[in-house]
Amino acid sequence: MENISKVWLGELPKDSPYVKPFRMYYVQNGVEKNWDLLKVHDSVAIILFNTTRQKLVLVRQFRPAVYHGIISSALGNFEKVDLKEFPPVIGVTLELCAGIVDKQMSWEEIAREEVLEECGYNVPVERIEQVMVYRSGVGSSGAKQAMYYCEVNDEDKANSGGGVDDEMIEVVELTLAEAQRMVQQGAVNNSPPSCLMGLMWFFANKAPKA
After folding, report:
1. Strand partners of residue 56
2. What is the pLDDT of residues 117-153, one digit of tens each?
3. Which reactions appear under catalytic activity for this entry (predicted)?
4. 121, 130 contact by CB (below 8 A)
């Protein structure tokens, strides 16, 4: 996953199927303003709990945006990146199973498909329980994300997961104690807010009581 030998930046093509930048103009209290925005896909995220193992199932993957953010914050630019000084592993995140909404299917069906593709669990859509719906990237995209919860077990395991096509995703199982440390005061994570919020919701609503 971290076997990355070269990084560089380029212009965003206008036909990108994932990100479309634009500027919105509006008048507020009689003053004309503008804001630069990104049109991106809505998405789903799934909290997975393996009841057989009593572990939370997350995914680990390299995120170019995180890698770029760390380096540009440290150096003020992203030019001639030294891969030894900034090893790609610093851009690896721990996240909930998730995916974009880009098919003519219900959001629950998309969530079920992501659970199978990324984590290898084949579950009926009836086991996908909606947790909440919210807006992500409110300063740049305002995209909608729906969070779901699903309990799985070892008998549901159909394959090793890892994603499809050229995706490189590692399935990670966390004990409840390991997951709790991620949301303790002072914790530092490469995880997105949706993952941390999902873990906190799990501990507040679904975690087995001691």
Report:
1. 49, 174
2. 999 999 999 999 999 999 999 999 999 999 999 999 9
3. UDP-sugar + H2O = UMP + alpha-D-aldose 1-phosphate
4. no
Q: How many helices (H) and strands (E) does the chain have?
A: 4, 9
Phi/psi at 36 (5° precision): -85, 130
Token couple for 191: 């995880």
Q: Which segments of the chain does DSSP mark as H helices, in order?
A: 64-75, 107-114, 176-182, 193-205
pLDDT at 210 over 80: no
Q: What is the CATH number of the domain that holds 171?
A: 3.90.79.10
Q: Which domain holds residue 124?
A: 19-205
pTM of the model: 0.95
Q: What whole-number distance in Å separates Cα of residue 44 and Cα of residue 76?
A: 33
Spatial neighbors of 115 by CB under 8 A, at least 6 apart, are 46, 48, 97, 121, 123, 128, 150, 152
Q: What would the pLDDT profile of 15-59 be if each residue is shown by its tens digit? A: 999 999 999 999 999 999 999 999 999 999 999 999 999 999 999
Name the DSSP class of 157. B
Residues in the chain: 210
Structural domain total, the chain: 1
**Any domain includes 5:** no
In a domain, 157, yes or no: yes
The DSSP line for 37-59 is EEE---EEEEEEEETTTTEEEEE
Whether residue 14 lies inside any domain: the answer is no
